Amino acid sequence: MKRYEGLFILNTAGKEESVNDVVNKIAEEIVAAGGKVETIQKMDKKSFVRTPNRKVTAGFYVNIIFTSKPSGLTPLQNKLSLNNDVYRVMINHAPVVVAKADAAA
């Protein structure tokens, strides 16, 4: 299992589903692909500087840290690319968390 950090840009324009529902669906997809979600950070809606598609001028950014087998990553990306609520996805290796030693020691 490796640790990954996924930045998801959600297209929620004109949708009745809330951001929480879309994020929960993404988390379920990660778990269905054999992964485990560690943290979810909702970053807020931001306007795009450049808009190649005039229909989508802003997106809701969500950062999800999860663990998964490397073999489960490609099917997960393929499945998320078919989801209309996910505008863009970027998945990178997440830095390993090192436990801090006690300061008093």
Secondary-structure blueprint of this entry?
Layout: E1 2-10, H1 19-32, E2 36-47, E3 58-68, H2 73-81, E4 86-93
How big is the Rg? 16 Å
Give the termini distance in whole angstroms.
Answer: 32 Å
Low-confidence stretches: none
Order of helices and strands: EHEEHE
The largest beta-sheet arranges its strands as 2-3-1-4
What is the count of helical runs?
2
How would you sum up the major sheet? 4 strands, antiparallel
Helix fraction? 10-25%
Quote the beta fraction: 35-45%
The total count of strands amounts to 4
Please identify the structural class as seen in this structure: alpha+beta
Describe the global form.
globular
What is the residue-averaged pLDDT? 88
Structure commentary:
This protein is α+β, with helices and mostly antiparallel strands. Helices cover about 20% and strands about 40% of the residues. It has 2 helices and 4 strands; from the N terminus they run βαββαβ. Strands 2-3-1-4 form a 4-stranded antiparallel beta sheet, with helices on one face. It is globular and about 50 Å long. The model has no long low-confidence stretch (mean pLDDT about 90).
